[in-house]
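FORM 7B: Structural annotation worksheet

SECTION A. Query
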Amino acid sequence: MTTTISISLVLLILGVIGLLGLTANHLSVYVKENLGLTVMIKNDAKDAEVRKLEKILSSSQKVKSVRFVTKEQSAKELEADLGENFIEYLGYNPLLSSIEVRLFAEYANPEGMEAVKKLIASFPEVKEVYYQKNIVHLIHENIRRISLVLFGFASLLMLIAIALINNTVRLMVYAKRFVIRTMQLVGATRGFIRKPLLIQSIMQGLVGGFIANVLLAGIIYLSTRELSGVVDFQNIPLVVILFLTVFLIGILITWLSTFFAVRKYLNLKTEDLYI
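SECTION B. Predicted structure
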């Protein structure tokens, strides 16, 4: 029971690492897909040409969403921001109609956005295309750095978790070293001795993985409820893959650790068992 609980807690750590990875990926995609380009439309552009451009952009594989904003809507939004009616002061509306373009996360990087900008700017009805280059570059670099830090941290915790499970299993086998020697003395084969211990290790991995996944499910539920909008685990296939990975890691590590630990004591001399 102690071994199984230890294994489940270590597997829980691995599962939490996976959840952190999913959360970081979700936040990264969310931030990137909220970066966009603003396409300014010429005053003399015909409605049919603008609608055609809008449809072309909507059908692009790189574009996630397109929103057409008339000059009147732009004026209302600016008026709300300024808190005063600037049209009455100027006597006319100086703003232009525009199209707000949002790209998918894999294209929302400096190179991808610059390529899309050049493509859109080639249309005759487009006056100007702009986006905040400095912010796009800064976000792209920060996401890359954070991803490297998280990967290094996750790798370190992974190694620690594997070492903890391995030591826990080896201690369990160590406690049975005299039983293993007794079975050898009465003529039991290596396979016969190893089989029940390996089956036990697989069962411990399964039970430990089940307990870890139950705790992970609780963490996911609480995180989604308390941090709605920031933490999102709606990608069910990825969550299922994470749960299956916890099961497989639990089984694989316990099985391998047991196999090599039993082999060690099968090869030891009787006097070495007391060391």
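SECTION C. Observations
The mean pLDDT is 81. The chain has nine helices and four strands.

SECTION D. Sign-off
Analyst initials: ____
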